[in-house]
Amino acid sequence: MYSGPGLSTPRIGTAWRGDNLGVACQILDSNNKRLVLAIERPGRNGVQWANTAGYIWADDIDGDTSFLPPCSSIGRDLRPSRDTAMYSGPGLSTPRIGTAWAGELVNGICKITDNKGKRLVLGRHLAGRNGVQWANTAGYIWDDDIADNTDALPDCGLA
Q: Which residues contact 121 (CB under 8 A, 6 or more apart)?
């Protein structure tokens, strides 16, 4: 699993064969290879947090993913109220994988509550930053750091 759509982006986790994988959308990398933005639901005790989100090569997923909508056609536009961290999983103790900068566009996909009752939003920072972060970096953002209301976002789900 990668933080952005491409092999050169940081690897942030693993989707194990046979695990419950929630898939959201698809996107093409700069070489026209298809990736799927997914949530690896169970995680691995001591290895990876449950609900780690990232991009997976479509060819590595069992089953047809061609029906998935393009990532550009789902979610809603949100703006962080301040520079805020993006995390690989829904919680402050999960690895930080990027930044959503204040006032810049984030595509909010779904919401989830962490184990302390705090809401996070799975989003894609659309622009990226040259030399710092790839465009379309995906991660969880604290809801309190988002200027817009996120109540209408669908739940990321746990099933």
A: 78, 106, 108, 109, 110, 111, 112, 140, 141, 143, 146, 150, 153
Residue segments in the chain with a per-residue pLDDT below the cut of 70: 158-159
Please name the amino acid found at residue 132.
Answer: V
In sequence order, the 6+-apart residues with CB closer than 8 A to the CB of 149 are none
pLDDT of residue 141: 97
The total number of residues shown for the chain amounts to: 159
CATH of 74-145, one of 1.10.8, 1.10.730, 2.60.40, 2.30.30: 2.30.30
Q: Please name which of 7, 109, 14, 15 lies closest in space to residue 62, comparing C-alpha atoms.
A: 15
Q: Give 136's Cβ-side CA count (13 Å radius).
A: 19
- Please give the model's pTM, rounded to 2 decimal places: 0.93
pLDDT tens for residues 132-155? 889 999 999 999 999 999 999 999
